[in-house]
Amino acid sequence: MKKQKQPSPFSRLMKYAGGYKILTYLSWVLSFISALTALLPLVYIFFIIREVLEVAPDFSRATSIVRNGVMAVVFSAAALVIYFGALMCSHVSAFRIGSNIKRGLLKHITKLPLGFSDEMGSGKVRKIINDSSNAAETYLAHNLPDMAGQTGI
Question: What's the pLDDT score for residue 116?
């Protein structure tokens, strides 16, 4: 008998996302674009250093230092704005997923026998629900966009 393949933990999380799933994927793309954009200031700093070394000791011939410096600042700011957009997308999706996880768990708990909550204690059950949904939110809101930015999609 062939064993059925279990869905990955991420696939199971995405089932709770509903229509907000696209925001999770968009956050990955934006985070990756932000990481690439954050590399461009280094290129412009290289241009500045190269120009300074080429014209030394007559620095009055260095004509594009200001333009390259401005471009480095512009791309640094752009990388921050794009990353902010990535985090906004991931947070909206993560909060929706977290609330859907809580809703699903509470719906499941209402179907359990009363002895279950007496045996475990309502405080422990509440703590498990909150900790689990908060861990999923943190993973989706912060860890996934950071991994996309660091390693690529």
Answer: 76
